[in-house]
Every structure is written in C-alpha cells, then in structure tokens.
Design goal:
- There is one protein chain.
- With 218 residues, the protein is mostly helical.
- It is 66% helix and 2% strand.
- Strands 1-2 form a two-stranded antiparallel ribbon.
C-alpha cells in the first residue's frame, strides 16, 4: 500500500471500538442501576417488616400490661392502668413499597397504609384515655380512697360525673376491640409482606422479626 494511500480500516476500527465501549458502559451502568433497584426494593421489605414488628410488640405489650387482666371486669374502664408508654411514636412505611402496585401483590401497599392509620388512631385513643384518667378521674376520686368500706359504683360514677364516666367507658370499649383487631391485622400483614418478597425476589430471605403473643416470642 502506498504511503499516502488512506487507510479506511483504521477509522472504522476506531469507530467500532468506540461504539462497543459505549455499549458495554451502558450495559454495565444499566446492570448496576437494576441491581441497586432490586437491592433497594428488597431492603424496603425488611424495613416494612421492622416497622410491623415494632407496631405489633408495642401493642402486644400494652395488651398484656394494661388490658388482658381487666378486659372482662365490669370496672375495667376505670381500673385498667394507664400505659407505661407515654410516647407511642409515629411508625411510617413511607413509599418504598409503592412498586408493589405494579405486581400481583398490589393490595399490600394500601393494606400497610391502613395499618399505619389505624395504629395512629388507636395509640391516640389510648393516650386520650390516659390523659383523662390522670387529669380528671384520679383527682376527682381521691377523696373516696379514704372510705373504710370502699366506694360503690354509684358513688364513683356520681363523683366522676356523667360526661367523664361515659367518655371513659366508650374509650375502653373502643380500645379493647381495636387492639385485638389491629394486632391480628399486623400479623397478617407480616405474612403478606413475606409472600410478596418471595414473589418478587425468590430465594432471598427476609428478616424474621420476633413477634410476641401473650408475652412469649413466636
């Protein structure tokens, strides 16, 4: 080949190498982004399970400490103690599991949002009862504590007044009913989240939070 003859192969080879390099870079970047998305989504399952774990055990602890022994007592609305937990916190699932809306497990995301809302409502009801007991009921009943033969139910309700008595009774019925429903709903959600993880990330084990029932880990 003459020295001044143009070599067409060189620019073609350079262009080919550039294209191949770009494609490889794109493929690697896409793979890395997909891998990160997969890992992020799986981590979202673990975070959701951790939140459900904390919700369940805080409610189960309250049930054992403040409700179980008083649920069937006629005076449970008044005699059940206030919660030792003064700050229930606000548990949030955020939107990390919103991708489930595009899967066969689309019902799980709204299910978790409903649990979140119900937990806030229940914890608020518990705190309102605690505040009413500490702020009004206990101070009003203090004079009756010195009675040698104790106070009758009529005397207690008369001392509290109809408004406070009715509020405490309504709150107590609501707490007793909603507490069992919420704990059962959280237990179901734990299984639903695990099933969804097995569907979208087969072969990868999720965390196994310890759920307590009657004070015993399950």
């Amino acid at each position: 080949m003459a020295a001044n003859e143009f070599n067409w192969m060189q620019p073609i080879a350079t262009l080919s190498a550039t294209i191949v390099g770009g494609l490889l870079t794109h493929c690697f970047t896409t793979f890395r982004e997909n891998r990160k998305q997969i890992d992020d989504r799986f981590a979202a399952y673990d975070r959701a399970l951790a939140v459900l774990f904390d919700m369940h055990n805080s409610l189960e602890s309250y049930r054992q400490d403040c409700v179980a022994a008083y649920k069937d007592r006629y005076d449970g609305w008044l005699s059940a103690p206030v919660s030792p937990t003064r700050n229930w916190g606000r548990f949030r699932f955020h939107n990390a599991l919103v991708f489930l809306l595009e899967t066969k497990k689309a019902n799980i995301f709204p299910e978790l949002l409903l649990i979140e809302t119900n937990f806030d409502a229940l914890s608020s009801l518990i705190q309102r009862r605690d505040d009413l007991l500490l702020r009004e009921a206990h101070p009003k009943l203090a004079p009756l504590l010195g009675k040698a033969d104790g106070a009758t139910q009529f005397e207690i309700e008369q001392t509290l007044g109809a408004d406070v008595t009715n509020q405490l009774k309504i709150m107590w019925r609501g707490i007793s009913k909603l507490l069992d429903e919420q704990i059962a709903g959280i237990g179901k959600a734990v299984e639903d989240v695990r099933d969804a993880a097995a569907l979208t990330h087969p072969g990868r084990p999720t965390i196994k939070p310890i759920l307590f029932k009657d004070g015993v880990p399950t």
